[in-house]
Amino acid sequence: MSVFPLVGYAFCKSPAFRPWRVEALGGRDRLVLYALFSALSVAGTYMGMPVQGAIANTRAIGPVLAGLIGGPLLGGAVGATGGIHRYFIGGFTGFACGFSTAIQGLFAGLVHMMIVRHFGREATLSPKVAFATTAAAALAEMAIILAVARPFADALSLVKAISLPVMAANAVGATLFMSIILDRRRTADELGAASSAKALRMAHRSLALLSRGFDGSVAVELARIIHQETGVAAVAVTDVENVLAFVGDGADHHTGSGPIRSELTRRAIAQSEVTFADGILEPFECPASHDCPLRSVLVVPLRIDAEVVGTMRLYERAHAPFLQINRTLSEGLTALLASQLLRARYQEQKRLTMIAELKLAHAQINPHFLFNSLATIVAIMRKDSDRARDLVGHLSTFFRLNLKRASELATLDEELVHVSAYLEIEKARYEDRLSVRLEVDSALLGVKLPVFTLQPLVENAIKHGIAQMLRPGTARIRAYRSEGAAVIDVEDDAGTYDSAKRSRDGLGMGLVEKRLRNLLGGGSSLSVTCVPHKLTRISIRLPLAEAQP
Q: Would you state the CATH architecture of domain 3-192?
């Protein structure tokens, strides 16, 4: 009986056990279990004791465990294998014992089905179930021996001698085997859950830091988080040249600043690979003090796009083993931090690109508009100096707002002030050919939208619409609520919108649409409606939950 706990322990340590889950046994898993439990059944026969021309044994453990874990098919297959082997050994109980072994596997399989139906698959691993099922299976074997083996007197004498020891040995052996499997499973699950929880806590606490970049203040906070969560003796963070932070034992001589002096760290950076000094096979020699309490160190490089930008170092004391879980956590966390740094770098590049595009749009529009405006003002000065002075004020307001608004978002009210200055100058230029109408819900004046959104759309309406008409035209700006969103329409009554021309020309509408999507997310949109020779409407839709200040 004592062999079975040893076999159970060996099985739990084998590669076959690691992916094994009772709720999802695959074909390969069943083959492995068939081979294991068949071997247990055959070994139980060989390890039995000869008694009165028969064998007192623990053969029942194999088919019973197979049936409980895998159901009737697996239990029956293992029982048939063990039974055939027992039959060919012979003896006056050869047939009875062989037949009973097959029946035991099927019986355990039926117990499996009943338990799964009422309690779920995990309940089939209960040691109590294993004990009761194996005891019942051993009792059934005794009954079959009495019913089949002849002469009956010998069978009865045998059963009296072996029934209690066989029932006890099989039941206790199966219980110990199942207990080991269940405990091993539970330990693995608990360890995995604890590791996952620790990793998630570290990720949650550290990822927000890296949105600020990778500098000394971020490194100090990051080192503190890793030190608290892993429980190692000390943690250091470096870039490729200098130590940025050090937290933990040895802080009296390991400074959190200054150039990197550790050869291990330089090697990790140069070779872009993890280096480890366990303090035994590869000693860790502190470059700062011979009395340093730290004796082992793990150096993990921090990479962005295959470029090493720094390292994370974890230290342990002289008599503290460096836990494998901390090594795995630190390597995984470093990969996660690298991804976050890459994302932060990408976001910064995207922001700079948008700023460059916005400045390019300003540079493209401002000179064109400035020259036309100055020409208009010069012409008006000859006959109406007061109006010319007003136009100079509007022109000043327009360019002042262009230069002043450095943020990425503006309120609708600020956008209307900007575009109104533009429209006053354009009305002076086109005179009676252009009229403007504003229909704005005052409750929406605080809605946020990307800066420099309305002016390019209004300019398109005038330049590519009304300016092409032989009759007077009207530009309209409307802002209203619709289905939980703020809608802003820029319209003209020319109806000359050309989607092919839009894709070829300039930055205007394309830049507005791109910035809406990038700054306000997928809930915002820009759409165009055109009725040829009657209407062109550009509509901006902003979900109020995202657009409100």
A: Orthogonal Bundle (1.10)
